Amino acid sequence: MSRNTLWTAQEAAAATGGRAIGDWAVAGISIDTRSLAAGDLFVALKAARDGHDFVAQALEKGAGAALVSRIPDGVPADAPLLIVEDVQTGLEALGRAGRARSAARVVAVTGSVGKTSTKEMLAAMLSPQGRTHAAVASYNNHWGVPLTLARMPKDTEFAVIEIGMNHPGEIAPLARQARPHVAMVTTVAAVHLEAFDDVAGIAREKAAILEGLEPGGVAVLNGDLEVSAVLAEVAAARGCDIRWFGRTAPRYTLQSVSLHDAATRADLQIEGRGITAEIQSLGAHFAMNAIGALAAVTALGADLDLALSGLAHWAPVKGRGARLTVPVPGGGEVTVLDDAYNANPTSVAAALAVLAATPGSGRRIACLGDMGELGPEALALHAGLAELPAMAALDRVYCVGPMMGALHEALPETRRGGCVATSAEAAQVLTRDLRAGDIVLAKGSLYMQMARVVDAIREIGQGSASS
């Protein structure tokens, strides 16, 4: 099926100030030849490799054109190109133009934990109400945000933009590109402490998302934080309308949470109306994300009941708390909680609570990789996980990486699984130890590649199915 035109050569050249070669039109935008679809504009960004090295391959795969700063080697002079001074700057300009030409109502989401899950919740809530465009995966950085904006179809009615950071000063420029009508901060936690003096500094950086708000915009903020006053101070200085959410918030209140089988039930008060929301995954943190997302949806002017209907169909995605069952040789199956994408002390605590609450008669096993960017207190924060209440419900904890060695030492011997350097080693050790009925959580910072553990367990299931 053919796709609608996203950008013509003339439109893209006008947006970027670049020079178009050929009279082309593209239906999408790609930064990776592995996922490029025919008719996409290939953006030759510089990352681990220079994207110009892949332009010829992209055009061979059917790219409609390529955004470049020079004609790459092996590419004909008459190839369909958009030549700009700098590819990153060109992508940003295309993103700003994509936002400027759209009449969409835009919500932007940031936070130390829960950005991607909340973004996906918002997309599920808004999709029944109009044409909705949302960031793919965790595309929330200096290239992810402009890419999401540049990919936004002209007829989009709602857009959900995720904004992240690793260092001070990163959020505000991205928020100004997104120009949201509603900006949400999910939570603020001890993450990226290598780059900040304290959690209050992190809160100020998260609150910088408000710098991009459109006139009359709404700030949706977590009222249950030790640094909520910092968020309030920034919002007041910006003159924002604030909608607080949380257990202590007056208008968007999470009254209680209960976990049943594989679902979470949340009792909410929204603008004086009592509501029970069903979330098709375990986790009290999902309930907190949901009440915040519902506050954002109503701030956008969307329908609350349709949003609740959309929420009922939402489930976590791969690497973000997805749950899968895998058959094992000899009969039976294991349950895997795939939360492998990233980790910090707050998200690990939430994931362990989910593991502890997951029903089943087998062992509860956590496979935890190092948490990055925690600064001088990193080892103490890793060891401190041993004191979490959920640990009492676990049978084995496998520790992966040098910093998780501190947790291994802090655990009682009866709870210690293996302590290894890499996720590849963890996959070998853990899969040998699995039994039918086990429930396994895989979690760690992205660079630890804890998805290898999930993949190794999946391979056991494929072998079992074949046998």
UniProtKB/TrEMBL annotation:
InterPro entries: Mur-like_cat_sf, Mur_ligase_C, Mur_ligase_C_dom_sf, Mur_ligase_cen, Mur_ligase_N, MurCDEF_CellWall_CoF430Synth, MurE/MurF_N, UDP-N-AcMur_synth. Its EC number is 6.3.2.10. It is an enzyme of class 6 (ligase). GO terms for molecular function: ATP binding; UDP-N-acetylmuramoyl-tripeptide-D-alanyl-D-alanine ligase activity; UDP-N-acetylmuramoylalanyl-D-glutamyl-2,6-diaminopimelate-D-alanyl-D-alanine ligase activity. Residues 109-297 form the Mur ligase central domain. The lineage of its organism: Bacteria, Pseudomonadati, Pseudomonadota, Alphaproteobacteria, Rhodobacterales. Keywords: ATP-binding, Cell cycle, Cell division, Cell shape, Cell wall biogenesis/degradation, Cytoplasm, Ligase, Nucleotide-binding, Peptidoglycan synthesis. It is found in: Cytoplasm. Residues 26-71 form the Mur ligase N-terminal catalytic domain. The gene is murF. ATP binds at G111, S112, V113, G114, K115, T116, S117. One of its GO terms (cellular component) is cytoplasm. Transmembrane segments: none annotated. Involved in cell wall formation. Catalyzes the final step in the synthesis of UDP-N-acetylmuramoyl-pentapeptide, the precursor of murein. Belongs to the MurCDEF family. MurF subfamily. This is UDP-N-acetylmuramoyl-tripeptide--D-alanyl-D-alanine ligase.
